[in-house]
Backbone:
């Protein structure tokens, strides 16, 4: 048969060698999530997972190893865990900026989009900077792209944009061992289980992977302020780019190191405005964007500008609150409508059953 174990057949946004390594090592569930070898010097832990630390008002969320949806493996991360860590940092009023320190080949595709949106929305609350320290590939790069700014170390590896899966052909081994697997599928669903051993089956699976890659590329394009077509053509075409080459192609904004970036964000080093902010500095800014600029470049404000920035920040905060209330109300309305739609068949079936039982009693 063709092996259909979850690790093999799930869509993955991860480098090929990392997926092969996970399969080779089995990746049985184990306790804990590792924060990485240099996490200890990044400050005190402020989350139960230990993967987010704070020092000098700057929080660092460490994203290390392959990323899974919820379950945790030794030396890996989970989307749920990262989301919780980001939320902790955003809630803490003593934290002024957030670093996503990424050293990951990517991971499961399921769960990535939700975390990407969480990071993207956090831009308006605090400065969020991702650094490839030293690998931010596939799903890990998708996460990085959602930050206010993407920084890479000189040897940082970024890219590997795309989706893949692996199917193991064990038919010869099964035949030797006398194992026969029979799949029975409803006649109405001929495409439910494509056969990867056939060209048609491979084409069907590839079409799904292509569609998922387009979703991923569109998300990266939104985050980076470019087009999906440019992401597909110029961001490595599934390959990776290193350091300055990644900056030149548009995957990152500049080259730095973790410590240099931390000094900058904590106010102890040279202030560097985000590259995309510098490019748009000549354009008029709305109150919300002026407030974000004030938060990003506090040393450039005059006393009068600081007062105006504070006023603008308050207006932006109120605007975000109103937008969030509207979004929550719309989400509640939509959820109620969906629940009504889901429950309608059950109610109708109960009504029919009740009518049937009444008729039978007669």
Residues:
């Amino acid at each position: 048969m063709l092996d259909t174990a979850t690790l093999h057949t799930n869509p993955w946004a991860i480098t090929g060698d990392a997926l092969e390594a996970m399969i080779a090592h089995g990746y049985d569930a184990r306790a804990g999530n590792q924060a990485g070898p240099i996490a200890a010097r990044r400050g005190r832990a402020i989350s139960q997972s230990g993967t987010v630390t704070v020092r000098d008002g700057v929080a660092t969320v460490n994203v290390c190893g392959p990323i899974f949806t919820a379950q945790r493996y030794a030396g890996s991360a989970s989307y749920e865990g990262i989301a919780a860590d980001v939320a902790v940092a955003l809630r803490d009023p003593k934290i002024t900026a957030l670093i996503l320190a990424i050293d990951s080949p990517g991971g499961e595709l399921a769960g990535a989009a939700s975390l990407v949106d969480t990071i993207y929305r956090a831009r308006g609350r605090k400065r969020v900077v991702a650094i490839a320290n030293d690998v931010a590939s596939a799903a890990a790069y998708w996460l990085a792209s959602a930050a206010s700014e993407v920084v890479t170390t000189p040897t940082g590896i970024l890219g590997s944009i795309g989706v893949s899966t692996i199917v193991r052909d064990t038919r010869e081994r099964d035949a030797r061992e006398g194992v026969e697997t029979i799949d029975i599928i409803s006649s109405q669903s001929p495409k439910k289980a494509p056969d990867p051993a056939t060209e048609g089956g491979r084409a069907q699976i590839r079409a799904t992977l292509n569609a998922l890659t387009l979703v991923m590329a569109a998300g990266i394009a939104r985050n980076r302020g470019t087009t999906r077509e440019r992401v597909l053509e110029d961001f490595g075409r599934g390959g990776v780019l290193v350091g300055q080459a990644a900056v030149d192609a548009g995957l990152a904004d500049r080259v730095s190191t973790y410590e240099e970036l931390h000094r900058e964000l904590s106010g102890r080093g040279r202030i560097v405005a985000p590259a995309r902010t510098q490019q748009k500095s000549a354009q008029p800014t709305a109150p919300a964007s002026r407030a974000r600029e004030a938060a990003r470049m506090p040393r450039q404000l005059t006393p009068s500008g600081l007062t105006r920035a504070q006023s603008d920040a308050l207006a932006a905060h109120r605007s975000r609150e109103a937008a969030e209330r509207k979004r929550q109300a719309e989400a509640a309305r939509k959820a109620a409508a969906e629940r009504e739609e889901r429950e309608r068949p059950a109610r109708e079936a109960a009504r029919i059953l009740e009518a049937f039982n009444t008729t039978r009693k007669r």
Remarks:
- The radius of gyration is 25 Å.
- The mean pLDDT is 75.
- Residues 303-361 form the longest helix (59 residues).
- Residues 2-279 form a domain with the 2-enoyl-CoA Hydratase; Chain A, domain 1 fold (CATH 3.90.226.10).
